[in-house]
Amino acid sequence: MRKKYRCIRWLLGDQLNENHSWFGQLDADVLYVIAEHKQEASHTLLHVQKLCGFFAAMLGFAERLQSMGHEVLHLDLDSTVKYSSLEDLICNLVEKYKVQELQYQMPDEHRLRSCFRKLHGELEIVVEECDSEHFMLPFKEIDSFFKRGKHVRMETFYRAMRRKNEILMSGNNPVGERWNFDQENRNKLRESDLGNIPEPLLFSTPVDSILKRLNRHEVEYFGTVKDPLPWPVTREQSLELLDFFCRECLPRFGKYQDSLTGKSKNSWSLFHSRLSFSLNTKLIGPAEVIDRALDSYNKSSHIDLAQIEGFVRQILGWREYMRGIYWANMPEFIEFNWLNASKELPAFFWNGDTKLRCLSEAISQSLDRAYAHHIQRLMVTGNFCLLTGINPDQVDRWYLGIYIDALQWVEVPNTKGMALFADGGLIGTKPYAAGGNYINKMSDYCEDCHYNVKEKVGAKACPLNSLYWAFISQHRKKFENNHRLRMIYGTWDRMTSESQSAILEQAEKYMTEIDSL
Questions:
Q1: Rounded CA gap, 314 and 234, in Å?
Q2: CATH no., domain 139-326
Q3: pLDDT digits (tens, 9 = 90+) for 166-210
Q4: CA dist., res. 372 & res. 370, Å (int)
Q5: Domain 7-130 is of which CATH architecture?
Q6: Are 514 and 359 in contact (CB under 8 A)?
Q7: pTM
Q8: Which one of 81, 157, 212, 386 counts the least CB within 10 Å of its CB?
């Protein structure tokens, strides 16, 4: 390495996009820096596979840039331990290499953006913020769709993005004369369907050296250690997983994307793409993912419109929408607690030891694999935390820590907004609250559960049932005028006072025993 560079270009662990314009030409006077740092590895308690996944991907990307001929400095925890903060590390390298300019891609997290923007006034060199060139909605266009404190309907945004990008469009109309096939995306897996669930494509990246480094520097973590790591940590692996999804999973993805089952050894993966880590680290981009899926749809008679539309809606709709909501409402969003929820997160969220089969499956899987699909996150763990009034900050930290793909810009809106309704309706027009019937409708968990999904009261009554009605009763003043909940309150009001009292007493009993449910 040289002793002096004109420019340092800083890369964060979720900025691993080799198609960025930065890398279009070689410049020996530009040094790319990718650094592990204990402050970033410890700002919240993280799953060990998440730490290993990011560190392995960062190293792999540094090696990729070097193979392309770029000047690269990869710093591991051993090299950065003496620096108290990320800012301290950056300032030291700026001085060490006598650089005249620092460039960075705009971070996707508000905290990190503030950190880098402070450097504009602190460093006596040119500091430039660049676009990450990843998202399909450029940052400068966010405020044309999203306003601070204003509800934006996802479907409206999604249709605009379809038109803007000419995806699944026939002129100005949607292909098939329908924008949304959500009704066709809610099928329950039958016994006869289980054999169609593909064996998931897994990878084998050795992470022993990373684990030793984490332990040597006393970085705390939780979850199941997996060495080799099964997650894609390079662009090549990510593209291989994308091809696998389009070939093996996409033909049935939309139909079963909301399904849950405990009767398959691959119940954790089902027909989901599992591309979120690759996307959120920018190893691959949303446009190329959609293009590849559309190409498969156009070439295969086995992929119908409901399957491809359901997938496009996740990437072009929900993913871009959550980012827009996040930036339009930060930093206030992280403080939201509209329902004044204040209960402690139950201990079984850290070990999966609960008699509620749906929760046990979702939590144990998350601890084992650092992954759960969207329905497990929203309608199993999220719904339980909503009904029981768990403090949104505690739920937020759990989600951010446990999932390998969880970054604040996408996790906070999904957790505090969609799952917990802590935003008071910026995202959803009603809370995603449900009793045991929803779980029974979408899964086979209830068949083998300790509790009886058909009962609201009694020693083995499904806790979700009484907790649901207690939630509805408790927050009546906030929700009774919501037209989407009018029928629910009508049902509650038609119950006898004795039935209501019994249900509320049952819910109160379960709340006092929450750690042993």
A1: 22
A2: 1.25.40.80
A3: 999 999 999 999 999 888 878 999 999 999 999 999 999 999 999
A4: 7
A5: 3-Layer(aba) Sandwich (3.40)
A6: no
A7: 0.96
A8: 212
Angle (CA) 283-287-289 rounded to 5° is 65
Domain boundaries, the chain: 7-130, 139-326, 347-516
Q: Which CATH number fits domain 347-516: 1.20.1270.220, 3.40.30.10, 1.10.579.10, 2.30.110.10?
A: 1.10.579.10
Beta bridge partners of 46: 221
Question: Who contacts 259 (Cβ-Cβ below 8 Å, separation ≥6)?
Answer: 187, 188, 189, 270, 375, 442, 443
Question: With pLDDT > 90 as the criterion, what percentage of the chain qualifies?
Answer: 97
Peptide bond into 138 cis (omega under 30): no
Q: What is the pLDDT of residues 60-74, one digit of tens each?
A: 999 999 999 999 999
Give the β-pairing of 71-75 and 126-130: unpaired
Q: Which two tokens stand for residue 369?
A: 């694999």
Residue-wise pLDDT for 131-162, tens only, equals 999 999 999 999 999 999 999 999 999 999 99
For residues 448-487, one letter each, b for 16 or more C-beta atoms within 10 angstroms of the residue's C-beta and e for the rest, the string is ebebebeebbeeebbbbbbbbbbbbeebeebbeeeeebee
